[in-house]
Design brief:
The structure holds two protein chains of two kinds. By secondary structure, chain A is an alpha/beta fold. In chain A, 40% of the residues lie in helices and 14% in strands. Chain A has 23 helices and 18 strands. Chain B is an alpha+beta fold. Chain B folds into two domains: 76 residues, ACT domain (Alpha-Beta Plaits, 2-Layer Sandwich); 72 residues, 2-Layer Sandwich (Alpha-Beta Plaits), CATH 3.30.70. Classes of the chains: A alpha/beta, B alpha+beta. At the A-B interface, loops of A face helix 1, helix 2 and strand 4 of B. Bound molecules: thiamine diphosphate and magnesium ion.
């Protein structure tokens, strides 16, 4: 067998079904072999970045199913590989297992600036979990297996295999043997310890038992270790409130009485105030990102911190821990649950306090959502997301893009299904939603998937409508069109005297765009049409685009200004938006 | 700024040095010295990096993040009290043999070659400070060329 055959054989053995990619000179042999084998479902993206996000969507959504799959994307050398960069960096930030396979120019011409040569390993090294360049056909199979192992164990991440064209075609020697079942990668420098040690568990239980104002953080690690159900049982047992990070959302039902919602920059008042007042934080599978903590020296000053995290280098990185548990979240919760020393106390005063925090914005938000329209009778995003949630009973899968609409989706969809919330967190990559939703749908074909983007982000990868058209992928696409790069506009309103530099945007006719791709489309401008449009999309067999015309002056609150502390949390619009400047912006 | 030595055992693979130096750059350090050699175990390299940092937390973080690399088998910081830090310098001096003789016994050097009456190539080994002291005493005016290995270190 030759390199390309060994590559595909190994992927098959790793239970890979889908290959997302785009061909070109240096990867053609692999594509050709894939066609001959007929063993994969190939999904052609319209841009390699799209392929990377599709692969991410597949990895993330399938993780909680009985058949987890690693997302694999394929590209040619040079420009093809460079187009993958954003998707790989994004997966790295968000701990998403993924395999990127890039064709490379032949070994004989590497480092001569050959046609379409880029130093892929050099570029990818700092933005991926591992990189490989196999230099013999005999190394290919082993590399794929090791790559999948590294990508999916410990803290997940993207792995890149840069495969020179001559190696793809090279025959393995006659005596080449490889047994995937017996293969154990030799990685003396790669450790992760899933099982928690006894001592820190004992200390953690002591802290929990004596804490008067404890608070649990549900991070991405809860989803990644499939610990949502277990966490729900745990909080019910100990009666401790829980707040979610951006990626922890949907691990437990959003409206669970012990859930305070999302924390951080645009987190709920109750989550953020609880953090300020807590005497104990129990952080599960998270990394204390700056969007979560705000100014570090003002963060949770009164709290002891128990940090459960599989990646040892995250412990004590941003927040100093009292008890560090370097282990898998599921296993840790399992051990804690079974420990007879763990007690449950009512903590009435703490709950009274939390319930009072819950009241701070409740009425304002309820009213805004109910009214559903803002300035110029334009729709409010939060009202739309709330209605979508009501119509779908919070059970659907939501893939948000990046911007105000993303925060609205994080806050106002009532997630009921485990692992039903997807998007780009650490990197915040606009344009991720449409391609990621394709991967999510392929992983969970029986569930309904909504891709929700702003007018800005949608246009960053809207070429993937081509993939949706060709593959007849049933994703329901929502564009929340406010005519602006809304999130940036919000910052401009609050902190830049309302000068809208580079944020007003003229968009194409999304109806004509949809039509060009043969996808049904509806534009919604009136509140009474919101629910019927959502119902129409649900009834529609296959993809549909809904465009909602939204009020650009809507803001997402609360907001902790970048670099500020929790004490600086804004819960009201600091000043009314300057009308005349809005007009100016719109004219521009 | 306090001088730090970080000792790492790594797989002897291409790209490992690149990965490590990229991390150190990303953490915004300027490497003082970096030495790599084979270790006792075949396929495993030994790397000593020195850099300047006063904040212990930041050094600990560099160590943690190095440790995370798949190719890095173990890393630790070596402090000056509990480890030997040594380097070697090869120095070409324009100096009278009789003057050079006066340094003997006080500094640990070996004459590799006497090229002419007053051109000597010698090898000096010892701590960074010791080598600096030797060179100071010899005086800049006598030094034609100098090559130093950078620090290698071992725990006591
Ligand atoms: C690739 C990329 N470029 C720039 C940004 C900076 N950015 C963050 S949110 C945002 C505005 C997004 O606008 P839109 O997609 O219309 O969503 P809205 O905020 O209006 O809901 C921008 C430009 C980013 N996150 N990603
Ligand atoms: Mg917008």
């Amino acid at each position: 067998m030759n390199g390309k055959q060994l590559l595909l054989k190994a992927l098959k053995e790793r239970k890979v079904r889908f290959l997302f990619g785009y061909t070109g000179g240096a990867i053609m042999p692999v594509f050709d072999e894939m066609e001959k084998m007929g063993a994969f479902e190939f999904v052609m993206a319209r841009h390699e970045q799209g392929a990377a996000f599709m692969a991410q969507g597949l990895s993330r959504a399938s993780l909680s199913t009985s058949t987890p799959q690693i997302g694999v994307c394929l590209s040619t050398s040079g420009p093809g590989a460079m187009n993958l960069v954003t998707g790989v960096a994004d997966a790295h930030m968000d701990s998403v297992p993924m395999l990127a396979i890039t064709g490379q120019v032949a070994t004989g011409v590497i480092a001569t600036d050959a046609f379409q040569e880029s130093d892929v390993v050099g570029v990818m090294m700092p933005i991926s979990k591992q990189t490989y360049m196999p230099l013999a056909a005999e190394d290919v199979e082993k590399t794929v297996h090791e790559a999948c192992y590294v990508a999916t164990t410990g803290r997940g991440g993207p792995v890149v295999i840069d495969l020179p064209k001559d190696i793809q075609n090279q025959q393995a020697g006659d005596d080449y043997r490889f047994d995937a079942k017996k293969f154990r990668p030799h990685l003396p420098g790669y450790f992760y310890t899933p099982t928690p040690e006894r001592d820190p568990i004992r200390q953690a239980i002591e802290l929990i038992n004596k804490s008067e104002r404890p608070l649990i953080f549900c991070g991405h690690g809860v989803i990644n270790s499939n610990a949502g159900d277990l966490l729900q049982r745990f909080i019910e047992k100990v009666n401790i409130p829980v707040a979610s990070t951006f990626h922890g959302i949907s691990a437990i039902p959003a409206d669970h009485p012990l859930h305070l919602g999302m924390m951080g920059m645009h987190g709920t008042v109750e989550a953020n105030r609880a953090i300020m007042e807590a005497d104990l934080l129990i952080a599960l599978g998270m990394r204390f990102d700056d969007r979560v903590t705000g100014k570090l020296d003002e963060y949770a000053q009164n709290a002891a911190v128990i940090h459960v995290e599989i990646d040892a280098s995250e412990i004590d990185k941003n927040v100093r821990t009292t008890v560090a548990i370097n282990a898998d979240v599921y296993r840790t919760l399992h051990v804690l649950m079974g420990d007879p020393m763990l007690t449950c106390t009512p903590r009435r005063r703490w709950w009274d306090k939390i319930n009072s925090f819950r009241e701070v914005m409740k009425e304002d938000l309820r009213e805004e959502i109910e009214v559903g329209i803002g300035n110029d009778n334009k729709l409010l995003m939060k009202g739309i997301v709330h209605r979508l949630s009501a119509v779908t009973k919070g059970r659907d899968l939501v893939v948000a893009d990046v911007g105000q609409h993303q925060m609205m989706c994080a806050r106002f969809y009532n997630y009921q299904t485990n692992n039903s919330w997807f998007g780009s967190g650490g990197a915040g990559t606009m344009g991720c939603s449409l391609p990621m939703a394709i991967g999510v749908k392929l992983a969970r074909p029986k569930e309904r998937v909504w891709s929700i983007s702003g007018d800005g982000g949608f246009q960053m990868n809207m070429q993937e409508l081509g993939t949706i058209m060709e593959k007849q992928i049933d994703v329901k696409i929502i564009i929340l069109n406010n005519g602006y790069l809304g999130m940036v506009r919000q910052w401009q309103t609050f902190f830049f005297d309302g000068r809208f530099a580079g944020t007003p945007m003229l968009s194409p006719d999304f109806g004509l765009i949809s039509q060009a791709y043969g996808i049904p489309y509806r534009k919604v401008e009136l509140l009474e049409d919101v629910v019927p449009a959502i119902e129409e999309a649900i009834a529609c067999k296959g993809a549909m685009v809904l465009e909602f015309i939204c009020d650009p002056s809507e803001v997402i609150l609360p907001m902790i200004p970048a670099g500020g502390g929790f004490g600086d949390m804004m819960i009201r619009h600091p000043h009314a938006p300057k009308k005349d400047q809005t007009k100016q912006g719109e004219a521009a | 700024m306090k001088r730090r030595a970080i000792l790492a055992f790594t797989l002897d693979h291409p790209g490992v040095l690149n990965k490590i130096s990229m991390l150190i750059r990303k953490k915004m350090y300027n490497v003082d010295t970096l030495t790599v050699c084979r270790s006792r175990i075949p396929g495993v390299s030994r790397m000593t990096i020195t850099l300047r940092e006063s904040d212990q937390d930041r050094v600990d973080q560099v160590v943690c993040q190095l440790e995370k690399f798949t190719e890095v088998i173990s890393v630790k910081e070596l402090d000056t009290d509990h480890s030997y830090w040594r380097e070697v310098a090869i120095v070409k001096l324009e100096i009278e043999a009789s003057v050079l003789e006066t340094f003997h016994g006080r500094y640990n050097f070996e004459i590799l070659e006497q090229k002419s009456d007053d051109i000597h190539i010698l090898q000096v080994a010892g701590s960074t400070r010791r080598i600096d002291a030797f060179l100071d005493e010899v005086g800049q005016g006598h030094i034609v060329e100098i090559a130093r290995t950078g620090v290698t270190a071992m725990e006591k």
